[in-house]
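Ticket #4471: complex job returned nothing on first submit. Input attached below:
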Amino acid sequence: MTSASRADKPVDPARDAAFKRELVALIPHLRAFARTLTGDPTSADDLAQDAMMKAWDARASFEMGTNMKAWTFMILRNQFYSEKRRSWRQSQLDQEAAERTLVAIDDPSAPVALDELRMGLGMLPAEQREALILVGAGGFAYEEAAEICGCAVGTVKSRVSRARRALQAILERGDYDRDGASASEAMGSILAHAERLSNARR
Amino acid sequence: MKKSPKGSPELDEARLRQQAIGARLRQLFDDVVNEPVPDDFLEILRRAEPESSASPAAVGKSTAEGDEA
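Support reply: We reran it on our side without changes. The output follows.
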């Protein structure tokens, strides 16, 4: 999705305008990706703005007519990792988790509470979280998600599958981090449980 | 997804939970998509824009692409 620098190219106002229109239309999606990735609205908007401006600055290297949504999501995703903003989410979680009480699930088709889902997302390994968001909410095909994440299609499928099992286990067991200390231990147990579920379904 | 060979209630239940989680995940995402975009996004973009594409009528006045004030 990248190409050689075209910095020498003359200014093309019509192309810039078309690029901008498409970029502006993508802002809500960039915000949603950033929000679900980081879990923190303020930091997410900073991330989305950074990604938007990086996309704008790199507009000469974008091939008009190709998938700008995937291209901008890839920029945002790379920005997220390069700035190691994963820690944003954790501090947010610790605070929220301290006040949380857990409710057992009696009805499997009962709606999932949004705040619990946010918590659960935050407990997933980042690469599973991003894969699940892209495929499960962002509307990307596995192939597109693989391109955005820079990995093989099979890897994305596996991450999405693991993420789904882990999220289910987290929500069912109410095992999200409550004291900030046992998170990794709980996560190991959840992932093991998810693996068993996953294997049982084959 | 196929029904499991043994028709295990546990797996059916898991499938229902997955559907519920999937629906909520999309809602979590779409809720943000449907929020109004904060003004500063468009403001930052407008400031970064060369005059030439900001107002096509003023093309002749613009200098180099990407110049910022």
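The CA atoms of residues 162 and 195 of chain A lie 7 Å apart. Closing as resolved unless it happens again.
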